[in-house]
């Protein structure tokens, strides 16, 4: 490996890290250095941008420790047989970069992943060494997200959870069949076993915290995972059901979806084109239906077509409503919150405002117009004091009718 300076390493390893989508920084415990001790915080406004549930933009230094790897996963640009420029940071260099970027107010935390070098245990030791140095030697109180290696010794993964706010273990592909075909050196059973160990450690620390306030935290922001979309034959239905299974079994905070991107010198078993980015977007929308809107995984999967794919031209919530019109229209002045959440075009905030407002007055269509971006999308599915859709809900062309009219943007407008 040619000798590179820090700037060249950063260019290579920051670019290599862009394929990992799981870098949100929400859900951790609050820490800051306003008491004059330590450095950094997990709060505030923030060269990777993640978004907290309240909309805050949080900047993370997102890099790989190295893009060298002893594995040869077909879909990975950093695989052993890939013809890419390699680089490697030492733990001391990553610590120095993190502190330097933080002091310049560029970042609020670190997202660190790595290719596998020498062995899984050796690589995990290097990753843990970075977090240990930041926490113990420099009293860094910012956010740390570590990508852990399922094949590593469980004790090393446990140490990662003690220093990091969030840990993540990628399941890589939605199906075991796809994993064996495209990443034969990885074991789905070991991946799930490592996720189960992290879950158990999080639960144990939560119980300990209830009894002893001084008990150390373990990954207070939980664990997450990532699935690559479009590299194998898995359908959207397969992905949704797999994600739900992971949420139920391992108490995941998030499942991230990353659309497969064609790579140089690709294997013949990979598709020649990447899937539409809209497919990735529809999967995130499906994920939100399960997490925030009360839909079961089976109901979300029912929104898919005969081939198991979500429609790209309409969102999954609208697709479900069009398939199950017997649930509509919904009376906004009488229906329970659970029914309101299923109305296309109404988000969680809008539903909460409707529930709060109708305690004092009967809602009219004009009231709804102030709560949603597209009234045309909502009207066929609701009843208000002055509106009833009559036969509109049963129209055969309802999908086209609910789409907002397309307008030509002005080249020199604004």
From TrEMBL:
GO terms for molecular function: catalytic activity; iron-sulfur cluster binding; metal ion binding. Keywords: Iron, Iron-sulfur, Metal-binding, S-adenosyl-L-methionine. It holds the Pfam family Radical_SAM. This is Putative DNA modification/repair radical SAM protein. Its cofactor is [4Fe-4S] cluster. InterPro entries: Aldolase_TIM (IPR013785), DNA_rSAM_put (IPR023874), Elp3/MiaA/NifB-like_rSAM (IPR006638), Endo/Exo/Phosphatase_dom_1 (IPR051675), rSAM (IPR007197), rSAM_sf (IPR058240), RuvA_2-like (IPR010994). Residues 59-286 form the Elp3/MiaA/NifB-like radical SAM core domain.
